[in-house]
Design goal:
Rossmann fold; alpha/beta; globular; eight-stranded mixed sheet
């Protein structure tokens, strides 16, 4: 039987130094009770496998809620926390190292009325920043979201996602997306409505949190049927475009990418 790395003492010791508030000691082994027991939502299920608070941020209308709702189990089990004004979606994934859960915090649209309160970010253990490739302003605002996130959550793994790559009138080309390279975090292009690259942000975060680059998903989560279709040729084009952009030198200033 393969060793369950998520319940291995070495794994827990490595990650405990970064996330000390998540763990309790039992019989000399570190184990997870929940992502943060004292902040559990009403009626929220406590699980006996690793779980993490994932903060999902970005401008309103970028597709954050559509993205997280693709995960059918998480959508069915979501809970609303009125005191903070968020919906929390428990997203489970099965890996070769055991089961893992992301408690994905979705703003429920409140970012449209101003900045998010610190209570949304507090104890965040990983994050996704999303922008809309059909709306330049949403990408220009990425540094602001990153700044607000890092002000409260220091040194957590972050993924930048450019959503709506299925839409024809793309305004933010791959070569324009350089912020993640300057800040040294991951970027993926996704299409929430087609499920394109849905799992990649979560896999990246799971690997960073576990410190195991060989970690992989052993089964796909149940996703809502795609509303649009991206053919293989388009997918290959996206990937080639990303590779070409990564090979280009960084501009001196972030705004240079839009020239």
């Amino acid at each position: 039987m393969a060793r369950d790395s998520f319940h291995d003492a070495m794994y827990h010791s490595a990650i405990a130094s970064r996330l000390p508030h998540v763990f309790v000691i039992e019989d000399t082994k570190l184990s997870f009770h929940s992502f943060l027991p004292h902040m559990a939502l009403p009626n929220q299920q406590t699980v006996d496998y690793p779980s993490f608070k994932l903060v999902l941020v970005g401008d309103g209308g970028t597709g954050k809620t559509t993205f997280v709702k693709r995960h059918l189990t998480g959508e069915f089990e979501k809970k609303y926390e009125p005191t903070i004004g968020v919906e929390v979606h428990p997203l489970d994934f099965h890996t070769n190292c055991g089961k893992i859960r992301f408690y994905c915090w979705d703003t429920a649209g409140q970012e449209k009325f101003g900045g998010l309160r610190d209570g949304y970010y507090i104890h965040g253990q990983c994050a996704i920043i999303m922008f809309d490739v059909t709306a330049r302003l949403t990408y220009k605002n990425v540094p602001t979201w990153h700044r607000d996130l890092c002000r409260v959550c220091e040194n957590i793994p972050i993924v930048l996602c450019g959503n709506k790559v299925d839409v024809k009138n793309r305004q933010v080309k791959a070569k324009m997306v350089t912020f993640h390279r300057k800040k040294n975090f991951q970027y993926y292009e996704i299409s929430a409505k087609s499920n394109y690259n849905f799992e990649k942000p979560f896999l990246y975060l799971a690997r960073k949190l576990s410190g195991d680059l060989s970690l992989h998903f052993v089964e796909s989560p149940a996703l809502a049927p795609p509303e649009v279709h991206i053919d293989l040729a388009a997918q290959l084009y996206f990937e080639a475009d990303i590779a070409a952009a990564a090979a280009q030198p960084l501009p001196d200033d972030e705004d240079d990418a839009f020239d």
